[in-house]
Specification:
Blueprint (H helix, E strand, L loop, with lengths): L7 E3 L2 E3 L2 H12 L5 E2 L4 E2 L5 E2 L3 E3 L4 E5 L8 H13 L10 E9 L2 E5 L7 E5 L6 E5 L23 E2 L18
Parallel strand pairs: 7-8
Antiparallel strand pairs: 1-2, 3-6, 4-5, 6-7, 8-9, 10-11, 10-12
Bound molecules: zinc ion.
Zinc ion binds next to loops.
């Protein structure tokens, strides 16, 4: 079965699907700044890749994919490329590439693009901002650089895949089929 994506406008950006717009609305809810398709990349093998979102303040790239869309090869390659050109994984400045999925039961669903990653969203105890973090690597806030266990005041400050509420973009411009 193929599900046709319905384009949708959100905050002045023409997005390819309602799912992309919903993720933009979810990022907005958590006050995470995003850029939509800010650049096209030429991968090593000459393949073009257009990442869906860049989260500029936290050095995260995100690719929105359907529930069972396994076509994430470009995102995986992009993560490898960033690891080659960046520092090692223990450097909190390491850029992350995450896959954003449709919500399950009203909660946000995501995954990493490298086997060793354990991607969570944290709410920093120091600066109170939400950010993606590789829990398997450095525990350091990508905004204020606070590190170690001090960035978590409460167990509830760590949101695992499926623990964070998902928010939908308003549908006022929906056209009749
Ligand atoms: Zn912080």
């Amino acid at each position: 079965m193929t599900i046709q994506a319905i384009p949708m406008r959100y905050k002045g950006e023409q997005m390819r699907s309602t799912l992309e717009a919903d993720w933009a609305a979810t990022l907005d809810h958590y006050q995470i700044a995003w850029e939509y398709e800010p650049l096209a990349l030429n991968m090593d093998d000459g393949i073009k890749y257009l990442p869906d979102f860049h989260l500029p303040h936290q050095r995260v790239w995100a690719e929105v994919k359907g529930p069972s869309d396994d076509n994430i090869g470009k995102a995986i390659e992009f993560q490898k490329l960033l690891e080659r050109t960046d520092a090692h994984k223990w450097d909190f400045e390491q850029q992350l590439v995450v896959i954003l999925r449709p919500s399950r039961g009203g909660m946000a669903v995501w995954e990493g693009t490298a086997y060793a990653q354990d991607i969570v969203v944290i709410r920093c105890a120091n600066c109170d901002r939400f950010a993606f973090m590789d829990y398997a690597a450095t525990w350091k806030c990508r905004f204020c650089h606070m590190d170690g266990k001090q960035i978590f005041n409460h167990p509830g400050d760590i949101f695992r895949n499926g623990d964070l509420e998902f928010h939908r973009a308003p549908r006022q411009h929906r056209r009749a089929a």
